[in-house]
Model the fold of this input.
Amino acid sequence: MSYNVNEKGYYGEFGGAFIPEMLYPNVEELRQNYLKITAEPAFQAEFDDLLKEYVGRPTPLYFAKRLSEQYNTKIYLKREDLCHTGAHKINNTIGQIILAKRLGKTRIIAETGAGQHGVATATVCALMGLECIVYMGEVDIKRQAPNVARMKMLGAEVRPAKSGSKTLKDATNEAIRDWINNPVDTYYIIGSVVGPHPYPDMVARFQSVISKEIKEQLLEKEGRENPDYVIACVGGGSNAAGTYYHFLDNEDVTIIAVEAAGLGVDSGESAATSALGKVGVIHGSKTLLMQTTDGQITEPYSISAGLDYPGVGPMHANLFATGRAKFISITDAQAMDWGIKLSQMEGLIPAIESAHAFAVLDEMKFKPEDIVVINLSGRGDKDLNTYIDYFKL
Done:
């Protein structure tokens, strides 16, 4: 079977476009045009050129010598933390901004949790000279202050979402509301593999440069294209989708998805959607979703703002439902400890989101000859205050 999207916008039973009628023209315009426009040689050339000259791709595939020795296996880190703006998010915003310009849009809106997608969107809007409005939960604005300052420096307007848990879900609601009110000139850059079709597929395609490079780099370093394991953290799941993309249909590659268990899967303070979620619809897509027995969305919790989402992208919901990916939940404490451990073992301070992925090394046993690729999806600059408060640094 194929684990990619089908022509109706579904991954197995998940996906689709569940949207208010007001949004139908916007989403339909995108659906009809995204494959055609992104396949144009001129689009490809501009996208590739910006990834190389502006983002700094290809990012290194780094052999983590000390980690490999400690865990007695071959561990490679995909260094998305070295991308311009400090995370993988820029791969997608570059693709979408070129698409938005091709569609004649002049005003860009986005939602952000950890602030990385907001910064990446503000960055490409500055690059292209377009108006930029970023919606961000009030709680996240407080805990990700450096990124808020960056967005403002880049000329974006940051609008606080003051409803609900005042985090990513609520910022997304506000962005969708804006889009409904401004359908003609506005383009909504979604930052993850969530939302109505074609967004999950489109974002995954733009992020797939990650797994494309992994294959090329492994061939050069190890004489084989495919690792035994690919590991990534999953909130909405765009860094993971990019890491898995070119391995989805190759069952020899084990896919490991790492979710945020928060204070523990059964603590009531968690964002482990695979463990706690049931099928539902959120932000225009049918997926796994944390909800009460009567279908109300429950508030997720994670110390990392980027994993603090009550659902998961439909690609990942399908990977979970079919058993293609192994899902592991990692607590705040495990992730924070790995933030310190990776810093002190490899000289790399990870984003707290990315730190979750490394905790898998303590949960699983790998063979000495295994090749394990972990996506270091972002760097920890934005999380220094959280690290400082947590460890009393």
In short: The mean pLDDT is 96. The chain has two domains: 18-50+89-202, 56-86+208-391. The first helix runs from residue 24 to 39. The two ends are 49 Å apart (CA to CA).
